[in-house]
Design goal:
The chain has 972 residues and is of the alpha+beta class. It is built from 41 helices and 13 strands. The radius of gyration is 33 Å and the shape is flat. 48% of the residues are buried.
Length: 972
């Protein structure tokens, strides 16, 4: 093997980092199970790899109909302590991985024993190790870096879970055929509190050679004893941090060191420290003696600088965390400066009209006069009166917020303008023209918004706060790169800038027709002088306001034009924003998930090319990714994306920034769909607090948060609280935006559902009918929103036992969702289950069973085996057997339903119902009467505690009275 023998160019073979299990210096490898052998519930297919600790087998899971990987520990014929250690290590690997849920960490499904040997059932990754991929692909440094960044994210996730891998190396990284990178082999992963015990054990280890292919002299033998645990090294020497060589406690920075060794090897083709033995490598690593850069290397210096820091001999020399290292690796400074080079021109030539049009002294003297004309006491009083005359309950609250923001923006603009003028009096600095152009744009935005506020109506008042939030700040002018050419006419550029400012302000304020006109003006002016950069911006702004007018197809085409214009101009911000906008339209209106994903790839690439300036767009990128995953029913992926976006926003803006509210809402929905209701409610309430702090309680933004909170409260059985939240939301939206508005329609649906939960069916039906009219007016008959209302109407008519009307609405709803989302979407499955329930109530149990079996397969595949939505379908399947008097066949379904709901903390009524169904059936079969009776009694108590409907309590009490009279006697 090649772990410690370094001839300058390391081997890329799969065995490169494999440990050898030894007993007294001799390897002992246990027999490999034959194909067809059953290990636990898994059927072995073939062996796919073998290492020092065990063999890796491909296997089939007959219960879940999927291929898995089985890691089976070698049988150790040495003393009992070694065998016990091996089993403990394998169990640690399973436990460590089971605590992680991350796209870049291999997933563990199960752990068990086979003939005294521990096995772990894991996700089967069809692909190859990083070692194999590097050897075959021979990637350039950029491609190799991208793959290792993915692996680094997996390590960072492990660290966040309190784990240290301790054996990161290329052989422990898998690259699937889908291109996704996963870190594996956490057999040495330990929490920090476990390491002290490990070190005590290691001090008792026998002294053995590290590698049978390399001779160790007497001086090196002492080192070997600290690296082994009776033949099993704690790590792989070629990749180990100095503190691991010294048998000191390690923290995540040891993994960072190993990661940098592996990445260095990938980009340079050799490891960072010379040495033929472990001692030589350890010595150079402890001294920080990284090899010199190869003379023919194309690896940039910034990357080498980051790697050398990560290879620091002391943990304190390295980055504070893997995340900090990844932040550096993910941003290529050369790309940032290349982008700047395209747009920064010599200061004298750049936008000479900014300087030539007036002297710097005159400009400084005129700052106050320019500001007085657009934001003075008289104008503020006039605007306040306009706001008050709208009569909106939140008008003056909005005005207070807007006035405060405008005061700050105006004052900061004046200060920046004066500072630029005074600087220019002494010497015209590099970038002067660029920054003055940016300040001019900020001034035009202030002027445009002030003029708009002076004519405020109810519509503008509603959008006033979000509009002022969208205005740029003078701080942006330090980084903004307008990309102006030096030879375009000065007056033309002023017109373009002013038109773009009006477009943004008018669009944010909801004045879409005027915004379209301003955007077209800016676009025509930019094209007339061949100013590609600003033409791309104007085209994108035109797409935004066109979309806002409801002309979706036109907007898609304009965004496509903006994307192309951005590519031609090298304007990556426009490229990214246009691509994300098309992705959202593909998602919301066409339900073309593949197209949406494709556009998101373009957006992500553009943001990466932007370098550091693109970091501000990453939360938006994650938010759209989360929306796409959520729409496809992949709630775990959606949760992860929303959390990433929220965390970036929080780190940039602070904990109390109002912009975090939408991220909390989206995250709350994803968590609720994963059955994590307590966390969902926390996020929804946090969003509500942020919105109420930013707006007034009667603002539509607050109503949206209330609607989302209502939805999650319903899921947790907090019926009265849900009705209260939904009622308030509907009241606010009807007053603010009217009946036929998408937000009002959503609120009506949620209120109807909450009223139904509260056993107020007549009121519920009233709101559902209103919601259907609203949905058809806004979305049309083929949209999922309309399908949702149809489904809920079906449920209401079912409760009224109007089977014909209920089935008609149910089939309309199912057809709508099948067309819009596809057969395999979880929402489609739920709607189909409602239809099956209707069929069962009409004694059409065979038809219902066919639908329910299909739905169970879909939901388990998409949501996992323990999701509450799956429990509903499985319970209904059990009921179809009960109705056909095939009671024993129903038991497995009823058992599983009760277990899932109990573990997931589902709705208390649903848990009680599942217990009642299972208990009564067991009792009736006669095999487990005592257990059945206990379940029914527990269900009865749970009904009472949860405040169930009278008819529910009466039904279960009647059963108990018949089969378990008060004196305790039961019928035979």
């Amino acid at each position: 093997m090649d772990d410690v023998v370094d001839s300058g160019t390391p081997s890329r073979s799969p065995e490169d980092a494999t440990l050898t299990a030894t007993t007294g210096g001799e390897a002992v490898v246990a027999p490999v199970p034959d194909s067809g052998t059953q290990v636990g519930r898994y059927v072995i297919i073939e062996a796919v790899g073998q290492g020092g600790m065990g063999v890796v087998l491909a296997a089939f899971d007959p219960e879940l109909d999927r291929k898995v990987a089985i890691k089976l520990l070698h049988r150790d014929h040495g003393d009992g302590r070694r065998a016990s250690e091996g089993r403990s290590r394998m169990l640690r690997e399973a436990q460590a991985l089971a605590r992680l849920s991350h796209a870049n960490v291999v997933t563990v499904h199960d752990v068990g024993l086979y003939e005294g040997r521990v096995f772990i059932a894991m996700e089967f990754v069809a692909g190859k190790t990083m070692s194999e991929w590097l050897a075959e692909a021979q990637p350039d440094w950029r491609t190799a870096l991208d793959k290792y960044i993915e692996a680094g994210r997996g390590l960072a996730a492990a660290h966040a879970a309190g784990l240290v891998h301790r054996d990161f190396k290329p052989h422990n990284v898998l690259i699937g055929e889908d291109g996704r990178v996963r870190v594996t082999d956490f057999g040495l992963a330990r929490s920090r509190r476990d390491q002290e015990a490990d070190l005590m054990l290691e001090s008792l280890s026998d002294s053995v050679e590290l590698n049978s292919s390399s001779e160790l002299n007497t001086g090196e033998h002492a080192l070997a004893s600290t690296l082994t645990r009776t033949g099993d090294r704690v790590g792989t020497p070629a990749y180990m941090a100095p503190e691991q060589f010294s048998a000191l406690p390690v923290d995540p920075r040891a993994d960072q060191f190993s990661f940098c060794v592996a990445l260095y090897e990938a980009v340079y083709g050799e490891r960072p420290f010379k040495g033929r033995t472990a001692l030589e490598i350890a010595t150079r690593a402890a001294q920080g003696r990284v090899r010199a850069t190869p003379s023919n290397s194309s690896v940039p210096h910034w990357l080498r600088r980051a790697l050398v820091r990560g290879l620091g001999p002391e943990p304190s020399d390295r980055f504070a965390s893997m995340d900090a290292l990844l932040d550096v690796l993910a941003v290529d400074p050369r790309r940032r400066w290349r982008r700047a080079a395209l747009i920064m021109l010599p200061p004298v030539a750049l936008g000479g009209w900014w300087i030539a049009s007036q002297s710097s002294h005159d400009a400084c003297a005129g700052v106050d006069a320019k500001l007085e004309g657009i934001w003075n006491a008289g104008r503020k009083k006039s605007i306040e009166d306009r706001f008050a005359r709208t009569g909106l309950p939140y008008a003056l609250s909005n005005w207070d917020t807007v006035r405060g923001r405008m005061d700050v923006l105006a004052a900061s603009w004046a200060a920046a303008e004066r500072a630029m003028c005074r600087t220019a009096e002494e010497d015209v600095p590099v970038g002067y023209g660029r920054r003055m152009a940016c300040l001019h744009r900020r001034y035009e935005e202030l002027r445009s918004y002030s003029d708009l506020l002076a004519e405020a109506d109810a519509g503008l008042v509603e959008h006033a706060v979000t509009t002022v939030e969208a205005l740029g700040t003078v701080g942006d002018c330090e980084d903004e790169s307008p990309g102006m050419r030096s030879d375009i006419p000065g007056e033309a550029q002023r017109e373009i800038t002013a038109a773009l400012a009006r477009t943004r302000v008018l669009g944010q304020a909801g004045r879409y027709d005027a915004a379209v006109e301003a955007a077209n003006e800016a676009r025509r002016a930019a094209e007339a002088v061949d100013e590609r950069w600003l033409a791309a911006e104007a085209t994108f702004e035109l797409g935004k306001v066109t979309e806002s007018t409801g002309r979706v197809k036109d907007a898609q085409q304009i965004y496509d034009d903006a994307f192309s214009a951005g590519v031609a101009a090298g304007h990556d911000e426009v490229v990214a924003r246009a691509a994300m906008s098309v992705a959202v339209l593909e998602l919301d209106h066409d339900k073309d998930f593949a197209a949406a994903d494709n556009w998101m790839e373009h957006a992500g690439g553009a943001i990466e090319r932007m370098g550091e300036p693109g970091q501000d767009m990453k939360p938006e990128l994650e938010n759209v990714r989360g929306r796409i995953a959520h729409a496809q029913g992949d709630y775990e992926q959606a949760r992860a994306a929303f959390e990433r976006g929220l965390e970036i926003r929080r780190s940039n803006l602070g904990e109390d920034a109002p912009q975090l509210a939408s991220y909390h809402v989206n995250l709350g929905h994803a968590l609720a769909n994963l059955g994590r209701f307590d966390e969902a409610i926390i996020n929804m309430k946090r969003a509500l607090v942020l919105e109420e702090r930013e707006f007034s309680p009667d603002h539509p933004r607050v109503a949206a948060s209330l609607t989302s909170l209502c939805s999650v409260l319903r899921d947790t059985g907090q019926t009265e609280a849900a009705v209260e939240a939904c009622t308030r939301s509907v009241s606010v939206l009807r007053a603010a935006v009217g009946e036929n508005h998408p937000r009002t329609g959503t609120a009506l649906v949620n209120l109807g559902s909450a009223l139904a939960d509260a056993d107020r069916p007549d009121e519920a039906l009233e709101y559902f009918i209103a919601a259907l009219a609203s949905a058809r007016a806004v979305y049309g008959d083929g949209h999922p929103r309309t399908g949702l209302v149809l489904n809920n109407l079906s449920v209401q008519y079912e409760l009224a036992e109007d089977w014909t009307t209920a089935e008609d609405y149910a089939r309309q709803a199912l057809e709508t969702f099948q067309r819009a989302l596809g057969e395999d979407h979880p929402t489609t499955a739920v709607v189909a289950s409602n239809l099956a329930n209707l069929l069962s109530k009409q004694q059409r149990h065979g038809e219902a069973e066919v639908i329910l079996r299909r739905n169970a397969e879909v939901l388990e595949r998409r949501l996992g085996p323990d999701h509450p939505d799956l429990a509903m379908v499985i319970g209904m399947l059990g009921e179809t057997f009960i109705h056909r008097e095939r009671l024993p066949e129903s038991i497995p379904y009823l058992e599983r339903t009760a277990k899932i709901l109990e573990q997931a903390g589902g709705h208390p009524f649903e848990i009680a119902t599942s217990k009642f169904a299972l208990g009564a059936t067991l009792f009736e079969i006669g095999e487990e009467r005592e257990r059945g009776l206990a379940l029914v009694r527990a269900a009865a108590q749970q009904y009472r505690d949860a405040g169930a409907r009278a008819d529910q309590i009466e039904e279960i009490e009647a059963w108990l009275e018949e089969f378990a009279p008060a004196d305790g006697d039961t019928m035979p």
